[in-house]
Amino acid sequence: MDAILSLSLLYATAALALVLLVRRLLRRAFGAGPAFGLWLLPALALVLPCLPGLPARWSVLPALRVLPDSMATGTAGTDAAMSMPWLRWLWLAGASVMLLRLAVHYLRLRRQSRALPMAIAASLRHALDDFDPRRLRLHPAGPAVLWAPRSLVLLPADFLDRFDAAEQRLVLRHELTHLRRGDALWSLIAGLAAALLWFHPLAWVALPRFRLDQELACDERVLRDAPRDETAYAHTLLHSVGLSPMPALIPWLAEPQLKERLTMIQRHRPGALRRRAGVAALAVLVAGSVFVAQAATNNRKASSNLTFNARIQPRYPEAAIKNKEQGTVVLKVLVSKDGRPLRIDVDPATKAAPDLVESARETAMQWRFNPALKNGKPVEGSARVPVEFNLTPLPSKTGQDKAEKRSSK
Predict the structure, then answer these.
(1) Highest mean predicted confidence (pLDDT) among 136-140, 242-246, 279-283
(2) Where is this region: Disordered (predicted)?
């Protein structure tokens, strides 16, 4: 499980960095729609370790150093420290707080929204096309789209006074385009991902850029269907009141987005051929990512369960200490589907006394492993575990500091 989570985080980091680097270039070359599609990559990256891969064979694990009991002070917990289970609890606490914050904000938005008066609904019927007016709500944060099992359009109480008839039509067309594109759901997924990656700096850098790219893609789609409305659309944006970005909500205009959106309207937008080329390039990029993942993830090799195994250390045999025997025992462990050792053999290249070999084998039979995966299912796998018996203690931190001071003099 630790290996899968680590790979997911690594892939998500690489995907976020890639999107942040190329989103502007892709937008200028192929349009805002394909550029927004780039945000599929981080979502895909999180599940890449669960995709089918290539068969795995031997997994070589880090060497385990064994010292006599009298010298082992301060070293027995090394593997346990490496696993750092407290990091999981810290992440879980932070994610719980962020998810609770998102849920409270969403419920507050739903509770504060009210049914649209029939008079306003009747006035807007000409701009709604076939949209169900029961999905319109009054809320001070409107105009905006709010995710729900059937996503809602929020309108301010002064919507009819704030915008004239032409502007009302443009604003509602924009919000309905969000609904047709499924943007409300994507915004919810982005908010959930940001909550789970609360500790990741790139996640917080990416979130406002995701929202901007979403708005640009929606604007482009609206103006592609009605190119003659460019001037009126820009005028409506320019005279709108910007809102601070809020979780679970897609406002008509967020404060930091005005300049970019007006620039996109004024700039010549790519034609259909270039947009299709952008979609094709995006499909190739996604397919290539999946192909690379097949070779690196889901046929994961067996690995040691560090948290469990750190509590079961091999004993340095007293006879070996007396005879000053040292050496590295290389164990070849056949790991079952449930992570238990089925068979333990000793690599012929091992050069160690028999009592050291026997101590390493007896202890390894009590260990647990993360099983190998093939096509997402646990299978039997193999791991090579070097166990180093050494009579020379590791230098202490104090000793290292003293040595560094002497060398500096």
Answers:
(1) 136-140
(2) 373-409
Angstrom distance (rounded) from CA 15 to CA 17: 5
Tokens of 52: 């089918």
Q: What is the C-alpha separation between 258 and 253, in angstroms, rounded?
A: 7
Confidence (pTM) = 0.66
Distance CA 393, CA 69 (A): 10
CB of 121 within 8 A of CB of 136?
yes
> Cα(139)–Cα(191) distance, rounded to whole angstroms?
21
**Residue 153 confidence (pLDDT):** 92
Q: CA–CA separation, 271 vs 327, rounded Å? A: 70
Residue spans per domain, the chain: 2-54+86-296, 303-408
pLDDT(223) > 50 = yes
| Degrees, nearest 5: CA angle 310-313-316 | 155
Domain 303-408 has CATH 3.40.50.20: no
Q: How confident is the model at residue 72 (pLDDT cuts 50, 70, 90)?
A: very low
Helix boundaries (H) for 61-151:
78-83, 86-112, 118-124
Three-state SS for 217? Answer: helix
pLDDT at 74: 38
- Given a contact cutoff of 8 angstroms between Cβ atoms, the answer to whether 143 and 220 are in contact is no
Q: How far apart are CA 216 and CA 260, in angstroms?
A: 8
